[in-house]
Amino acid sequence: MGIEWWQIVLLTLYAGYQILDELTINSSAGSPVFAGFIAGLVMGDVTTGLMIGGAMQLTILGVGTFGGSSRIDANSGTVLATAFSIGLGMSRELAISSIAVPVAALMIQTDILARFTNTFFAHRIDKHIEDHNYRAIERNYLLGAIPWALSRALPVFLALAFGGGLVNSVVEYMNNDLSWLATGLETAGAVLPAVGFAILLRYLPVKEHFPYLILGFVITAMLATLYGDVGAIGGAVAGLTEEFTRSFSGLPMLGVALIGFSIAAVEYKRSMNRSKQAVTEGAPKAAVVEETVEGEILDDEL
Predict the structure, then answer these.
(1) In terms of pLDDT, which residue wins out, 150 or 163?
(2) Least enclosed by CB within 10 Å: which of 36, 186, 287, 297?
(3) How confident is the model over 2-27, as a mean pLDDT?
(4) How big is the CA angle at 174 (ends 171 and 176), to the nearest 5 degrees?
(5) pLDDT-based confidence at 80, cuts 50/70/90?
(6) 0.85 exceeded by pTM
(7) 3-state class percentages of the chain: helix first, strand second, coil last, to nearest 5
(8) What own/partner pairs with CB < 8 Å and gap ≥ 24 does 215-222 have?
(9) Backbone angles phi, psi at 65, to 5 degrees
(10) 26 in the Ramachandran plot: left (φ > 0), alpha (ψ -120 to 50) or beta?
């Protein structure tokens, strides 16, 4: 299939925009899932884009930035992995492990370069503040968006414009002469989302609320099994008679999310009631704060 020039242009423009959205507007357009959706839409296969974006979103689920620290750029990795997976016929898992994750890690360097470049505009703004030159302050603030956009757009453009032939050759070589390595990378790509869950669970107050974790897992497993069995029965009945045209769909993730939200809302309301009751009874504030398990992040500690 290949990658057309207009697809390269659109993906490059989005790569430059997504970091600006993440830093300013924060409309979720700078997330791996959204990046997968946009890249899949441009490349003509939204399903593949969402699958790769979702996998990358889960991979960095527990990864965050603290202060001015840099983190892996999963968005750019998702864009390139989706483009090469659809354009060159790579499997999703192989694209995630061999392109998305390495590119996301390498983009830390361009992120740092963008931060250092912006210090030039920051010093100019400091000078204009002393001179009360507000127009110049606004101008340099807007100019600071250029290094940020180029830090993502330029690498993505170079990779899409000049890396297609190299990636295609590597994929063919791996699928033929190094099939064992390709299989291993695909397995690693399938396992990576579990890493994101593990990191997230490490910092969530799981030890204090493990009953909810067990309850959520059991509810999800039971409903998934129930929907799967009902779908299998429906498929069997449809094979026996043509009059049966009813189709069964699986449990949507929105349903699972709403169940989790309701449980979290109940627990939040209970904790607020306990705090209000303790304050009413005259107990010191420290007495109503539960002990924090070492390593877990609670409330607004971020």
Answers:
(1) 150
(2) 287
(3) 90
(4) 105
(5) very high
(6) no
(7) 75, 0, 25
(8) 215/263, 216/259, 216/260, 216/263, 219/256, 219/259, 220/256
(9) -105, 140
(10) left
DSSP 8-state secondary structure symbol assigned to residue 297: -
Please compute the mean of the pLDDT values over residues 67-80 and round it to a whole number: 80
CA distances 181 to 85, 103, 155, 171, 286, Å, are 17, 19, 26, 11, 55
Radius of gyration of the chain (CA): 24
Distance in angstroms (rounded) separating the CA atoms of residues 256 and 151: 37
Residue 296 in 3-state DSSP? coil
Residue with tokens 């397995």: 187
Would you say 160 and 80 are in contact if contact means Cβ atoms under 8 Å apart?
yes
**Token pair for 85:** 């997976």
**CB-CB contact of 78 with 39 (8 Å):** yes
Which of these, 104, 89, 109, lies nearest to 32 by C-alpha position? 104
Q: Which two tokens stand for residue 266?
A: 């109940």
Alpha helices in 44-163 (DSSP H): 46-59, 74-88, 92-95, 101-131, 134-143, 145-162
70-79: string of b/e by CB count within 10 Å (b at 16+)? eebbbbbbbb
Identify which has the larger pLDDT, 91 or 13: 13
**Cα–Cα distance, 81 to 87 (Å, whole number):** 10
pLDDT at 165: 67
- Residue 124 reports pLDDT greater than 80: yes
